[in-house]
Amino acid sequence: MAKSYNNLWQRMIDPDNIEAAIYAAAKGKRKKREVQRALADMPATVERIKGMLERDEWRPPEVREGRLYSDGIARKERLLVKPDFDEQVVHHLLIDQVIAPIFGPTFYRWSCGSIPGRGQEGMAKYVTRMTRKHARRIRNHVEHDIAQCFDTILVESIHDAIAAKIRDKRVMHIVDLVLGSNAIRLPDGTIKRTGVPIGLYTSPWFVNIVLSKIDHFVKDEKAILLFLRFIDDMEFVDANKRKIDRIVDEIERLLAKDGMRLKKKGGARPCVKSFKTADGWKVRYTGFHFTKKGALQVHDSVFLRAQRAGARMRRKMAAKKRVTAFDASKMISYGGRFRAFGSYNAFTTRVLCGKIKYFALRQKIADRDRRRNKSLKIRELIETIKTKGTSNL
To answer: Is the pTM of this model over 0.85?
Structure first.
């Protein structure tokens, strides 16, 4: 019988945990007025959030406003929602203090995406290590994607998976409130009820909790050579083509129980393919290519977008326009990806082109952070003077 947990409510209403959740929710949003008001009087904000939870007054919106965004490097159009600041604080409390400590250690190691410390770079290193170590068994592969995973996943499946381990009724009440708030008003005015809305901090965690049974089925019961999952994208590599097909058949049955299905092209799911030569065929997976010998390359679309970003920055510099810290952050982010995937020389020659200085980009970001920290310290000093008086300084 799986271990279950109770008496978790005190974690949710602990003032120190609420304060940590406020700072976590405020990360990257300190220019917003509601965030500035919350941080200006931290004790009052903590007491207000705690009071709402204790009196069972916190409620998420019944219908959320959805907006279409071009998300990520691939610029894929998604329907996103934006929760208010109080709701984000509650989400961070639920995930950081309850869900992550309980479910995080049970996740499959190479289930990546939206899990702290598990990104594409670490997964790419694992692919390199495994393909070089088991080169003779690297023969066949297939990539599968879950069709509209966040929209189709059953709310009941998420509730049951969490309730199997968490017995605290007040915590489960918060979970049910979050799960029940999944009606979205589309830009055309119609209302659509989804599985879990994209844009909430809780959504990728809920999806990973449900899909973790697939991870363990593949690795624990079938012992496939290489299995990766980046949220709803799955990659299978093994010497035995029939084994991969059997695993995918079982995964389809497991997904159907939770309201999901594998994406199909032309009415059929992707077929298992073989590596043609030791040097040749590159396999694409979540932003990078890998070969049978374990070589990594940045994906073509990422390369193209990095080149375009570099060209825009060079035009700005030529016109003597100001290069912002945001521009610098974007370029350094591209540089980190190229370095992780063994293509940094291409980044310096084809993106920076000898005209953009990497050190200058880092210096611009450091200057911005220094100004932010200085203004934050000044605001904190002013608040201290207001609350405690100059005699206590």
So the answer is: no
